[in-house]
Amino acid sequence: MSDKTTIRKPVDEVPPPAVATVDPRLLVREEGFKGYLTEFKRKLKGGELGSLPVIVALIIIWTIFQVKDDLFLSSANMVNISFFMAGTGMLSIGLVFVLLLGEIDLSVASVSGLAASVFATLTVNHGLNDWLAVVLTILTGVAIGAFHGFFFAKIGVPAFVVTLAGFLGWTGLMQWLLRGTGSLTIEDKGLLHMLGQRSFFMDQSIAGGYILATLGVALLLIGSLIDQARRRKARVPFRPTSEILLRTVALAVVSYVAAYVLNKSAGIPNALVFFLAALVICDFVLRRTTYGRKIFAVGGSIEAARRAGINVALIRITVFAISGGFAALGGLFLAGQTYTATLQAGTGNLLMLAIAAAVIGGTSLFGGRGNVWSALLGMLVIQSIQTGLDLLNMDQSIQYMITGAVLLAAVVVDSVSRRTQRSSGRA
């Protein structure tokens, strides 16, 4: 009797049910504040530090100087810090745009000095109307920046070389304009008066600071609610109302405390008001417009940007034009501090401080990551160090060493952060 072998048809294996991927931002929103804590820890492990390092550094710096001299956090000293950081901060805003491309602009300091000389020459030597002179001065900076961008984007000359040549050339042109006297005194009127140290928002009224604080809080709340409605309609992750209210309250506390402190002395310097307005406008351009997204795309990957149909050359030229425009505007701010255009304008450590402010504030030297608020945070750090050392009557050499150490620490944090993101697959 032969054995019969029973052949069984193999049963097809049933694949496990697919697990639906959930956007982590949606999960965070569902878990409430616990989810936000989890998300915060995840970002830290993934190297997404944001502004945390510079905020911690600022708290440490303020604590040390306040312990050394109890006048450091006085209202009068806070007014000085808020006024003197605006001029260099304007240069730093323009540099943030360039750094987002992964490039550098070494000409901003000399362009700022040239701008002060152009304005003084037009108003003092030729009697031109102040406001028309301001427009022509800023357009001069924009044209210079576009000139640099053209050689970089179209000819292929490295930005470092182009702007270094500009640094030398525009310094020479500034000296040529002032060759007769070496300096020109600018009248304390018009825009220069508004940017000067004796000019405050709504002079003789403590309401000015609180009005600005209320305006800032209202803009954040309205903008957040509009963004929430737009995202909800598009069925993409959005911030819940509870988070929007929490962020609004946090900004309100910071804003009203700052207004109270500054109002105890002279009030809000006009230079700070213009600086903050420039930050808000540029932040909107970078985060809310197609042009801003193109800048981040080019800074992230030039080849990917080209494949996406972005005109890389045009983005580069316009970014350097923006840098030149802000350099000229910063030159007017700096001229408003002394009401003079001199051969020393744009020299010294101005360039290094402007670059350091952007980098210390959190803008990456490698491109594609950062925001214009880096200019504010970085300038707060740098100006706090300068003012604190002045109160302690310490030599300027100490300031250079401390600022250099802070800058190096910022770059190290950025490098480690990028490496951590790559290892976690998020870069």
Description:
The protein is mainly α. It has a domain of 298 residues: Orthogonal Bundle (ABC transporter involved in vitamin B12 uptake, BtuC). Helix content is 71%, strand content 1%. It is built from 17 helices and 2 strands. A two-stranded antiparallel sheet has the order 1-2. α6 packs antiparallel against α7, α9 packs antiparallel against α10 and α15 crosses α16. The longest helix has 28 residues. The termini are far apart. About 2% of the residues have low confidence.
Summarize it.
The chain crosses the membrane at residues 49-67, 79-101, 108-125, 131-152, 159-178, 205-223, 244-262, 268-286, 313-335, 341-360, 372-392, 398-416. It is found in: Cell membrane. The protein has helices spanning 24-31, 33-45, 52-68, 75-100, 108-125, 130-155, 159-177, 190-195, 207-234, 241-263, 270-288, 290-300, 302-307, 312-338, 350-360, 373-391, 396-423, and strands at 183-185, 340-342.
The percentage helix is over 70%
Number of helices: 17
Under the CATH scheme, the architecture of one domain is: Orthogonal Bundle
With strands numbered from the N-terminus, the spatial order across the biggest sheet is 1-2
What's the N-to-C terminus distance? 71 Å
As a percent range, the share of strand residues is under 5%
Radius of gyration: 26 Å
Content-based structural category: mainly alpha
Give me the CATH fold name of one domain.
Answer: ABC transporter involved in vitamin B12 uptake, BtuC
Low-confidence sequence ranges: 18-27
Q: If you average the pLDDT, what whole number results?
A: 83
Q: Summarize the main sheet.
A: 2 strands, antiparallel
Protein name: Xylose transport system permease protein XylH
Pfam families: BPD_transp_2
InterPro entries: ABC_transp_permease
Subcellular location: Cell membrane
